[in-house]
Amino acid sequence: TPDELIIERRENEYKLFRQIEETHILHQVKKGFDTVDEFMQMANSVSNRRKSRSGKSLEIHLEHLFRQFGLATFSSQCRTEGNKRPDFIFPSCADYHDPTFPDQKLRMLAVKTTCKDRWRQVLNEANRVDRIHLFTLQEGVSPHQFAEMTTANVKLVVPKPLHTKYPELVRDKLMTLN
Questions:
Q1: H or E segment at 154?
Q2: Residue 45: left (phi > 0), alpha (psi -120 to 50), or beta?
Q3: Residues of 62-80 as b/e, b for ≥16 C-beta within 10 angstroms?
Q4: Which of 2, 81, 100, 145 is least surrounded by Cβ atoms within 10 Å, i.e. has the fewest?
Q5: Is 14 assigned a catalytic role?
Q6: pTM of the model as a whole
């Protein structure tokens, strides 16, 4: 299923990334550092690179899965109002910008590896879309946070194998990628 594939592909990609990272970074770490600032600069650089790679790769994996499972009508990184760029618009960016296309047929999927407090960032990425879908790999949110999302018309999309990590109270309200 798409839910199982996204998790499997992410795990395999992360293993490969770690091997490449070891090859390129470990020798610098083993050399040591002259100051704490040098150490912190290296650590922050590695951490930021990991976060950036993780988010972008998740979007790429989702795009490939959409195509693999026959979902042909979507746009990624469509520019909406101003300089906003939601991760995915359905059915297309052209439809989003067509004032005659009905708003109720537009969908948006935001992608966050973890949503924590960052889920609010997606609320105004596409003004014409009133129900936002948010895909995440985060292993659980509190019932309070889930209620906040629901109140803001955010529908949480989580791979089925991760549903058990969520409070029982919200599990049946989660969508799967499938």
A1: strand 154-157
A2: alpha
A3: bbebbeeeeeeebbbebeb
A4: 100
A5: no
A6: 0.88
Tokens representing 144?
């309070």
- Chain segment 143-164, per-residue pLDDT in tens: 999 999 999 999 999 999 999 9
Sequence length of the chain is 178
Asked if residue 7 lies in contact with residue 65, where contact means CB atoms within 8 angstroms, the answer is no
Cβ atoms of residues 21 and 29 within 8 Å: no
What letters, b where the CB count within 10 A reaches 16 and e where it falls short, cover 127-140? ebbeebbbbbbbee
Q: What is the pLDDT of residues 10-19, one digit of tens each?
A: 999 999 999 9
pLDDT digits (tens, 9 = 90+) for 111-150: 999 988 789 999 999 999 988 999 999 999 999 999 999 9
Distance CA 173, CA 175 (A): 7
CA 7 to chain centre: 13
